[in-house]
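Researcher: We're teaching a course module on how sequence relates to structure. For the next exercise, students receive a sequence and then see the predicted structure as tokens, so they can try to spot secondary structure elements on their own. Here is the exercise chain.
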Amino acid sequence: MSLRHAFERGAKAACRFTGHPLCFGLAIGVVLAWVVAGPLFGFSDTWQLVINTGTTIITFLMVFLIQNSQNRDAAAVQIKLDELIRATQAAEDALLDLEELDEDTLEKFRQRYERLARNARIGRPRSPDEPSFPEDEDTDHEEDSAARPASP
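Model: And here is the predicted structure for the students to work with:
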């Protein structure tokens, strides 16, 4: 088993465990035990250092687990969305793998869809000659020229 595979399995297991109510209960139990131990240690610097160090280490490690989980979830959602776009005849195939485009191109797509939504809200139907893709838009339209992305 590769190191990457072992990390993925461990990260998935850790995410399942840390997201479980039992884990939250354990965390509360640790904090309560620390509070109860305070008078035994005279609320010393060592007593404070134990909880501070423990929580810092756990927080540091959780950042990586959360990021791994979010990356996996985001990739799965993108694949599912790509499949829905691919399977829908009326959908624009240019939107497949959109998350890989540069920020300027994404902004132009966003502006185009905001314009379409705004027009739909005021009851203006989409004209049959309106281009399907932002890069196909005619340069004679002032409002539309700002929403034209580079070819994806």
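Model: If you want an answer key for the exercise: Confidence is low (pLDDT under 50) at residues 138-152. Helices lie at 3-18, 21-40, 45-87, 103-121, 142-145.
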